[in-house]
């Protein structure tokens, strides 16, 4: 399958790994929008949030415990962080493998729309 993030998971394209387990891979965004900008992705290829099914709920939930583990390790858990996931064109999704942006390290702009 010609998916950039699947290739990153397989190591075919290099990435700066932050965390990995059986279900999830996390790595630094190549074009950071904040001092901390990490992408957390399921190892299973899921194209968009629209394609998440009931049996994916455990891995999608797991992404959030991984996020708070990473936040604690980086020492950003108390000052705070934002998790964002874009779905399709109007949200600006550019890579069609579900991913969660973990943003931190500064006061983030509060407008979401
Ligand atoms: P989206 O716009 O789909 O929500 O987010 C895609 C993210 O993937 C962007 O923030 C972009 O910078 C990041 N990205 C795109 N290509 C690469 C890559 O080859 N390596 C890494 N580490 N990040 C990438
Ligand atoms: Zn993929």
Written overview of the protein:
- By secondary structure, the chain is of the alpha+beta class.
- It has one domain (4-104): HIT-like (HIT family, subunit A), CATH 3.30.428.
- It has 3 helices and 5 strands.
- The chain has a 5-stranded antiparallel beta sheet with strand order 1-2-3-5-4, covered by helices on one side.
- A hairpin with a 3-residue loop joins strand 1 (17-20) and strand 2 (24-28).
- The radius of gyration is 14 Å and the shape is globular.
- The mean pLDDT is 97.
- Zinc ion binds next to helix 1.
User: Can you count the beta strands?
Assistant: 5
At CATH level 2, the architecture is 2-Layer Sandwich
The average pLDDT value, as a whole number, equals 97
Alpha-beta classification: alpha+beta
Short précis:
By secondary structure, the chain is of the alpha+beta class. 26% of the residues lie in helices and 22% in strands.
Write the layout of secondary structure elements.
Elements: H1 4-10, E1 17-20, E2 24-28, E3 36-42, H2 57-74, E4 81-84, H3 88-91, E5 100-104
Antiparallel strand pairs: 1-2, 2-3, 3-5, 4-5
Keywords: Hydrolase
Active site: 99 (tele-amp-histidine intermediate)
Pfam families: HIT (PF01230)
């Amino acid at each position: 399958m010609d998916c950039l993030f699947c290739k990153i998971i397989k190591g075919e394209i290099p990435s700066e790994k932050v965390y990995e387990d059986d279900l999830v891979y996390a790595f630094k965004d190549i074009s950071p929008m904040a001092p901390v900008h990490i992408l957390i992705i399921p190892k299973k290829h899921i194209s968009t949030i629209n394609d998440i099914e009931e049996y994916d709920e455990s891995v999608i939930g797991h992404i959030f415990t991984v996020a708070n583990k990473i936040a604690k390790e980086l020492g950003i858990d108390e000052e705070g962080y934002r998790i964002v996931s874009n779905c399709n064109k109007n949200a600006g999704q550019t890579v069609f493998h579900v991913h969660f942006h973990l943003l931190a390290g500064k006061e983030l702009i509060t407008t979401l729309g």
